Amino acid sequence: AQTVTQSQPEMSVQEAETVTLSCTYDTSESDYYLFWYKQPPSRQMILVIRQEAYKQQNATENRFSVNFQKAAKSFSLKISDSQLGDAAMYFCAYYGGSQGNLIFGKGTKLSVKP
Amino acid sequence: EPEVTQTPSHQVTQMGQEVILRCVPISNHLYFYWYRQILGQKVEFLVSFYNNEISEKSEIFDDQFSVERPDGSNFTLKIRSTKLEDSAMYFCASRYQTGSGETQYFGPGTRLLVL
User: Fold this and answer.
1) Rounded to an integer, what distance in angstroms lies between the CA atom of residue B4 and that of residue B91?
2) Cα distances (angstroms) measured from residue B74 to each of A40, A71, B42, B63, B93
3) pLDDT of residue A19
4) pLDDT given for residue A98 in this prediction
5) pLDDT, position B70
6) Which residues of A16-39 are buried (b: 16+ CB within 10 A; e: fewer)?
7) Nearest neighbour of A104 by CB, restricted to B31, B43, B101
8) Residue B56: closest CA among chain A residues belongs to which residue?
9) Which positions 46-105 of B are in contact with A (Cβ < 8 Å)?
10) FRET label pair with A74: which of A28, A40, A60, B86, CA 20 to 30 Å apart?
11) pLDDT tens digit string along A13-33?
12) Which residues in chain B show pLDDT less than 50?
């Protein structure tokens, strides 16, 4: 069965600095998708970034980028120029193979210090 | 920009009561999902729905749960006899179709509290 592991329960970053959140996953599939979702205190789930496994190029969305290492089954999120509004829970999620649902990690709580 | 909506935003109910959580997915989406998140825990899959039938369900989705798309726009989750442990945030999500990036878009959630 596929699993998603986020080994950092909490992270902290200074405003304007860069932070990297880690995510590893386990799958025997070759074709899949990976996502980072942000959950602010309102608890809404907001899509941050998406990566297709067949693409070697790392996805980028403005200040957010990923480091996708398929062989290592690693999918980390880098937030550059951190802002106070980036403070939230960040969930890594996997989608692929025969199952149609997202599999989430336990999340990383990111704090941003002014 | 189209978005998934959910009502109510909060629901408080007594144990043993029935609740219906409502969702309006994005209009051209074909796949619909319910997830739940117990406070402080990760998001867990409940059920997926496609072509007017359940396509997949988790172990959590037992006989107390049911889903329906009664009118082509709403997508509902019914819990027949709520238990204390059903207290959680319930998220609806929808997706367009296979090959479109498989991105699921989430609604704002319904916070259910069972007393």
Assistant:
1) 10
2) 26, 41, 26, 21, 12
3) 98
4) 59
5) 84
6) eeebebbbbbebeeeebbbbbbbb
7) B43
8) A100
9) 48, 50, 55-56, 58, 89, 91, 93, 101-105
10) A40
11) 999 999 999 999 999 888 899
12) none
